[in-house]
Amino acid sequence: MKQQESHRSDFFFTPLDGKIEKAFRAIMALAVILPFLILIVLLVDTFVDGYPRLGWNFLTSFPSRFASSAGILSPLVGSIILMGLTALFAVPLGIGAAVYLEEYAPKNAITTFIELNIANLAGVPSIIYGLLGLGLFVRFMQMGRSLLAGAATLSLMALPMIIMAAREAIRTVPNDLREAAYALGADRWVTIRKVVLPLSLPGILTGIILSLARAIGETAPIITIGALTYVAFLPDSVTSSFTALPVQIFNWISRPQTDFHVNAAAGIIVLLVIMLAMNSIAIFLRFKLQRKIQ
After folding, report:
1. pLDDT for the residue 33
2. Strand intervals (E) in 9-130
3. 8 Å CB contact between 86 and 212
4. 115 pLDDT exceeds 80?
5. Where are the domains of the chain?
6. Is 275 exposed, middle or buried (0-12, 13-18, 19+ CB in 10 A)?
7. In CATH terms, is domain 56-293 a member of 1.10.3720.10?
8. Which of 21, 139, 147, 206 is the most exposed place for a label (fewest CB within 10 A)?
């Protein structure tokens, strides 16, 4: 019997399989290491170019025709307001849609069709959302090239990711907890509000912040709807014209003067710091909420 088992293992596992496995591991390791090295080279090059330009004057000055006196005050404020409005629009809609699809919606062809389209929308290129925002918000709804139109466009782009992240977080809540709440006399809404949402909140917050971090770095949608490349004032309302950090960086990098390229590198560093801060907040909130739940 042992001899037969030995022959079977020799039949299914040959020395060639071990060599293929080692080669496969090497290829997978290379697939991880190579992009990481490229990313490090790009970050180091950007930091070396832009670090000398960073300073309080750069953060508190308006854009200028002169590279040495140009700053990012209006793009920075525009990006902050844009993200605040985007979160205001996308977060309640995203969480509400996720709760409905997971807790209330019947499992039929219509909900399957909606779920399939949400998954597809998460992979649509950002320029398509820009064209949609230009046609729907800027022209049809006559919002103009304003902060409101930009936030609505970015909300459409962030919404599928928020819905998918919230649904995955809600699915992690065991059904036993729902049934226990029902057994104690709670109705469905109380169960969702008191049990499901608190337990799924870490995953929901992580998905929200990661989707907003992606939205803050997008250039194509807000350029498409007509965000200005030169703004020497701060927006005073949601109907004001605006610019954002990605647009300003794109404007500087497209100029032939080397000094503006240095400004663009400094702007990229600021944008990366903001995105890293948002990701760090997501990790911190997830850790704190998970510990609180446990």
Report:
1. 93
2. none
3. yes
4. yes
5. 2-53, 56-293
6. middle
7. yes
8. 21
